[in-house]
Each structure stands twice: as C-alpha cells, then as structure tokens.
Amino acid sequence: MDQKNPIIVANWKMYKTDLDAKVYLQEFFELLPKTSARVLIAPPFTTIRDVVKSRQYIEVGAQNVHEESVGAFTGEISAMMLRSISASFVICGHSERRRLFNDTEERVHLKLKQILLNGLLPILCVGETVSEREAGQTEKVLTRQIESALFRLRPSNLILAYEPVWAIGTGKTATPEMAADVHGFCRDLLKKLWGDVKVPILYGGSVTPETATALAAKPEIDGALVGGASLDAAKFVQIIKGFTS
Ligand code: PEP
Questions:
Q1: pLDDT in tens, 44-74
Q2: Per DSSP, what are the bridge partners of residue 159?
Q3: Residue nearest to atom 1 of ligand 1 (CA)
Q4: Directed axis angle between helix 209-216 and helix 233-244, to 10°?
Q5: If we measure between CA atoms, which residue out of 233, 232, 237, 229 comes closest to residue 204?
Q6: Helix axes 138-149, 105-117, angle to 10 degrees
Q7: Could you confirm whether 66 is annotated as catalytic?
Q8: Disulfide engineering: 66 pairs with which of 56, 72, 76, 225, CB 3.0-4.6 Å?
Q9: For 76-111, how does the pLDDT look when each residue is reduced to its tens digit (9 = 90+)?
C-alpha cells in the first residue's frame, strides 16, 4: 500500500436521506478536517448532488449506472447524467447488484464501458462466493470476472475492489493474509493482461475500525471499500485513521 495515500471508499447502499447525509457530513468533517487518504463516498443517487456541494476533500460517485447511454429505460440513470451532476466515479459489479439485480458479466462490461466513455472512474468489484472458495475456484472466478469486465478495454484509470461475497455485510472479514494473497493474484493477472500498469486494489467485506489497521499493514492492500461501517461517521473516520496511522 502507498502508506501515505490509501484509498477509502464508503458505499452507503440504500441508506440516508438528504437530511441524514447533511448530519453525517457535518460530523465527518468535524472529526476529520483533513487526511492524507483519498476518500470517496458513494451515496444513493438522490443524495449525490448535495454531497458534491458539501464536499471538501472527498470525491463523490454513484453505486450503479445503466449500461446504455440513453433510451426508454424507465427508472434508470446514465453515466452522462452522473457526470452532469459532478459525480466522479461509479461502483460497478458489486456483488449485491450481480446477485439481486441480474448484473451479469456482460452487463458489468457494458457498464464499465459507459463509465469510461463518460470520463468517470470505475471501481470494479470482484469476488468469490463461499462455495466457490471452498471448491478452490477463487482464482478462476476472479480471472473470469476481471477478464470479462475488461474485455478489449485498457482504462488508464481504474480501481479494483476485491470483495469476497461471503464477507459482505456478514461480519466475516477475510484475514489480512487471505486478502493479500488474492490481491497479489489480481495484480499478477492485470500485469499479464496489460503489463506494468498501476491499478490500486482495495479490500471490501465487513471492514471495521477493529480490522482496518491489520489490513492496512499489508503492502498488497491499497485501501478499503466499506459498506455497513461507513454509515456511521465516527466509525468511518476511525477506519480512515486506521489506514493512515
Ligand atoms: C460493500 O458494500 O461493498 C461492503 C463491503 O459492505 P460491508 O462493509 O457492509 O461488508
């Protein structure tokens, strides 16, 4: 990890109204007026604009995007719309989207393309289920997810997030050693695909203030994607401090 500039992403999922977000940010910036970490927050669509306005050093992005640029897709949001409200990144391929909303590998690839076409930074999430891990399939699954998402693409700007499905929202964190092993594997794979490009690799899956420091100590881990614990400003600040101290 770049010890001085870890990347810490908050995924608020379907939590927080505008008012909740205002209260949160006030507390957050009071507790952490500045940091050497790169902090990114992905609020729900309805709150992105307000979080963008109130931002100091944080980057603000979206949790999802539609795979087409425009069209009769009731209820959907395009990458261009996100860009027009100054979102700067989009989470793509999150396991909740893959599992609950039919974000297939093909759709993840198309979404990634839209994100890049619109000059936004993609945070590509990959990870194996518990049965895939137990069957010794982790590397195979990750290879498939990474290669399909990036098929014929070579983004100059990309963040990869390793999020084992069994660790998301379950309270079960991968040990720092397990995460570091998988990060090493992903880094080698990217090197094979693209040569020596710099892609930060974050760990996600029940990261808490208690587990942050040990994860941060692993040089293979460039930061964290945090769901549940990022909903509490004080906990999120502690996680950031755990990665920067
Ligand atoms: C996530 O939503 O990407 C995530 C890692 O969630 P949690 O931290 O709650 O496991």
A1: 999 999 999 987 789 999 999 999 999 999 9
A2: 123
A3: 227
A4: 20
A5: 229
A6: 40
A7: no
A8: 76
A9: 999 999 999 999 999 999 999 999 999 999 999 999
